[in-house]
Amino acid sequence: MTRIEKLFSTKQKDICNIYFTAGFPNLNDTEKIILTLEKAGADMVEIGMPYSDPLADGETIQQSGSVALKNGMTLDILFGQIESVRQKSQIPLVMMGYFNQVMQYGEEAFFKKCNEVGIDGLILPDLPAAIYEADYQQLMNENGLNNIFLITPQTPDERIVYLDKLSSGFVYMVADASVTGKQKDISNNQITYFERIEKMNLSNPRLIGFGIADHQSFSTACAHANGAIIGSAFIRALEKSENIEATIFDFIGMIKNKKAQIA
Amino acid sequence: MLETNIEKKKYDVDEQGFYGEFGGAFIPEMLYPNVEHLRKQYLEIMYEPEFQKEFRALLKDYVGRPSPLYFAKKLSAHYNTKIYLKREDLNHTGAHKINNTIGQILLAKRLGKHRIIAETGAGQHGVATATVCALAGLECIVFMGEVDIERQAPNVARMRMLGAKVVPAKSGSRTLKDATNEAIRDWINNPNDTHYIIGSVVGPHPYPDMVARFQSVISEEMKWQLKEQTGKEDPDTIIACVGGGSNAAGAFYHYLENEKVKLVAVEASGLGNDTGKSAATSVLGSKGVLHGSRTLLMQTEDGQVEEPYSISAGLDYPGIGPMHSHLIGSGRAEVFGATDEEALHAARFLAKMEGIIPALETAHAFAVLDKMTFEKDEVVVLNLSGRGDKDLTTYIDFFKLNG
After folding, report:
1. How far apart are the C-alpha atoms of A228 and A221, rounded to whole Å?
2. Candidates B31, B32, B119, B290, partner chain A, best to mutate (most A CBs within 10 A)
3. Within its chain, how far is the Cα of A137 from the centroid?
4. In the CATH hierarchy, which fold is given to the domain comprising B19-60+97-211?
5. Strand-strand pairing, B139-145 and B69-71
6. Measured between beta carbons, which residues in chain A are less than 8 angstroms from residue B303?
7. 3-state secondary structure of B379
């Protein structure tokens, strides 16, 4: 059982998963960010592997990735940082990145390394489901990795069932037809979509991401799924931060309880 | 006219969208419904008789096809062989790009899309897209790298004159690769009303195959034109420049399975392949995923896409289409490189010898004539993919033509 599966076996509601880009704002902030997120009350952390051409990401995450790459972040450095975090924390860790990075590292070597350093799951948005099924599902299983697929408001029902079957850990519900980081309120259409998926009784827990930025959108997402993923809003908070630890406590406080933000 | 993929061919795309190990659709789920919709429909739509009728009529009366196949007498004498130029530069809008945009705009209408997006490097595809959007009365947004907007100013003005909105791509190297990223992101954000007209044989399946099929009119015409002029349908050699590779794909298409016809792809070597300033993907690249397909691309050891360099905006791309990766990998096509300087001199030589000013992209193909050896009776077709009006500033500066 991965740490993700353990988490969902004890907690099914209000899961707070925070995304950050590794190497941003500084090359060696990874450990501080993960450990502080855990202390502040995040349930899971999604670590973005910075990439030169992140197709599914909006400006905020693109920018943070460019900065991280300029800071010198590489997969080897990142794996080293995660290995060190794992000595101090058992929080579920998901890596998010693009398939080209995995190919260059060598797929099998990459999965093994993830297992070794204590990664629990992967989100590779541009890895086709059919190729995963044919070439990588077994390898990932053998290395104790959950593979998390995305579904969107446009994904047909039968494909949702297929992607749910292929996923483990959780299913990533993309909240809106958009790249990451669009700032707007959750619409009625989105609620209808959340409700439609709720009724499908998927075999995996569901986390909603893309456009979740504050307490209100977080609680709306939590009302229709097991929790939510927050990325761009957190990066924006880090961008302005003078004290990363304080920013993280404020941010998680704001997400979980509106009053903390006002106070 | 019905040539769906029933017969399995060696160099053709397979059902999953692969050319050997290259191709496929490596796309985020957000793009899946649109790409899948296209995949299911494209062959049926594009080979339906009404579509073909409309497509062929526009190619003839609007684009001005067939494009001439011109026997370049002086050039042939100089290289002591027989060189024929396929004059795609004489097409409306000045390059081969319009063959594909005419096809895709008709397809977009049948798919019920009314907003068109495109990426462009040199601006030729942007102009060709803006043109067909004006023709069809559809909204047109063209993404173009900031760097390219500067070096291809005449084409930017053309697109705006045609009513298109030109959006600068400000990320990464601010060239074709980044314009493509921005177009893909726009498509993710606008999944319902938008069709993305990709300008080359790149991107997720079915784009490489679809664009190759629309461009295949080039080699289709070459066959009967060669028959008329030489008595044989087949040339000995076909030469074309490759950025993403659409003009090469079109020129090679009907000869792919005929292995007696030698296929030569010419990449841009920029300042030289060992200078770190090159766009010669097949030499400097390795297997990976770029813009939704598994192909050869220039990248770091850590899988970060590298910024290519070429004086020619249309070749300044870190990958090549999956079909070309396969053709090169399997040895079916031979690759040459041409540097900025070689291309510039080749352009001037062609202008003086034959009275034709080629696009900088095309000039790279001419540059390899100096590097190859030919038989006296060899029939060589060089695909003259575009004209050089857009590159005049570069030519003026390099050759000091202003005084």
Report:
1. 6
2. B32
3. 20
4. Rossmann fold (3.40.50)
5. unpaired
6. 51, 75, 100-105
7. strand
SS3 A87: coil
Predicted TM-score (pTM) above 0.80: yes
Contacts of residue B24 in chain A, CB cutoff 8 Å? 128, 131
Name the architecture of domain B64-94+216-399.
3-Layer(aba) Sandwich (3.40)
DSSP A164-208: HHH--S-EEEE-SSS-TT---PPPHHHHHHHHHHHTT--SS-EEE
Minimal C-alpha gap between B304 and chain A (Å) = 5
Between chains, do A150 and B16 touch, taking CB under 8 Å as contact? no
Taking only the tens of pLDDT, chain A with its 263 residues reads 999 999 999 999 999 999 999 999 999 999 999 999 999 999 999 999 999 999 999 999 999 999 999 999 999 999 999 999 999 999 999 999 999 999 999 999 999 999 999 999 999 999 999 999 999 999 999 999 999 999 999 999 999 999 999 999 999 999 998 899 887 889 999 999 999 999 999 999 999 999 999 999 999 999 999 999 999 999 999 999 999 999 999 999 999 985 544 44
Q: Specify whether B385 is catalytic.
A: yes
Please name the residue of chain A whose CA is at the shortest distance from the CA of residue B297: A100
pLDDT of residue B152: 86
Active-site pick, B119, B267, B306, B354: B119
Contact at CB, A100 and B290, closer than 8 angstroms: yes
Q: How many CA atoms lie within 13 A of A79 on its CB side?
A: 15
Burial B335-360 (b: 16+ CB within 10 A, else e): bbbbbbebbbbbbbbbbebbebbbbb
Active site residue B119: yes
Cβ <8 Å between B303 and A100: yes
d(CA A259, CA B109): 51
Cβ pair B29:A149 closer than 8 A: yes
Domain residue limits, chain B: 19-60+97-211, 64-94+216-399
Residue A259: its pLDDT value, please?
54
Across the interface, do B29 and A178 touch by the CB < 8 Å criterion? no
Angle between helix A75-86 and A30-40 (nearest 10): 40
DSSP classification of residue B314: G
B60 carries an active-site annotation: no
> Among A55, A104, A149, whose Cβ lies nearest the Cβ of B299?
A104
Identical fold between B19-60+97-211 and B64-94+216-399: yes
